Amino acid sequence: MIHEVDEALRELVRAEAVGEGAEIDVVFDAPTRDWAARRNTPTVNLYLYDIREDLRRRSRGRQNIYDETGRITDRTLPPRYFKLSYLISAWTQRPEDEHRLLASLLACFLRHDALPSDRLGPELAATRLPVPVSIALPPPEDRAFADVWSALGGELKPSLDVVVSAPVATAPVWKAGKPVRDGLAVGVADRKTPPPSASGAPTNAVARPRAARRRAGG
User: Fold this and answer.
1) Sign (positive/negative) of CA torsion 165, 167, 171, 174?
2) What are phi and psi of 160, to 5 degrees?
3) pLDDT digit string (tens) for 46-73?
4) Cβ distance 61 to 75 under 8 Å?
5) What angle, 0 to 180 degrees and rounded to 10, lies between the N-to-C axes of helices 2-13 and 95-110?
6) CB-neighbour burial class of residue 22 (10 A; exposed 0-12, middle 13-18, buried 19+)
7) 86/200 Cα distance (integer angstroms)
8) Which of helix, strand or coil describes residue 6?
């Protein structure tokens, strides 16, 4: 799933932010100080720095799976969503060019609430669910973007935070039972004349003591 999100982001950035013919690399490297020193071409870096479950999107219960005729064939659990957080930065020789690239990247992601369906890989497309994308939201309370740069050992740069919530379908699949085609049959027994028991007496007959039979004249 992660590699499919990587490829979808790369294609989206190349198509709508930097242009297909632009000589700008799109990479997923850690932007460390050594990496920055070796870079010699204009680059857009999409560094994946955090993976965690999106608990707001978790759902309960079982989910039906249908065939082409609309019949339920299997049942499974709903997919679980995971947030992939990318630190996106632009690297050129001039800060002005980096700012233009960041502006194009920001406009690109603002046009999409989810990754385009035609750019999804087979695993993501099989879920038939949207893959939401958010851009430049405030960081969580337990993490700051400056901390990410400090952990990388690099200098703080202007950057964009892109978060992709990707569905992951790894739950077991249970076969559904065959559809019921016959109606419910109900039988009604005659309560006035219950069927005889094995001894020949009615099943609701109650044995009385001998004394009680003599009092009754029996």
Assistant:
1) positive
2) -120, 140
3) 999 999 988 887 766 666 656 667 666 6
4) no
5) 110
6) middle
7) 84
8) helix
Query: Which residues face 196 on adjacent strands?
Result: 202
Read off the pLDDT of residues 125-170 as tens digits, 9 standing for 90 and up: 988 889 999 998 887 766 676 778 888 887 788 999 999 999 987 7
Buried b (16+ CB within 10 A) or exposed e, 105-142: bbebbeeeeebeeebbeebbeebebebbbebeeeeeee
Q: What is the pTM of this model?
A: 0.70
Contacts of residue 187, defined as CB under 8 A and 6 or more positions apart, other chains included, come to none
- Beta bridge partners of residue 104, listed in sequence order: none
Token look-up 């609309």 returns 70
Q: Which residues neighbour 192 within 8 Å (Cβ) at sequence distance 6 or greater?
A: none
Which residue matches tokens 């707001």?
Answer: 56
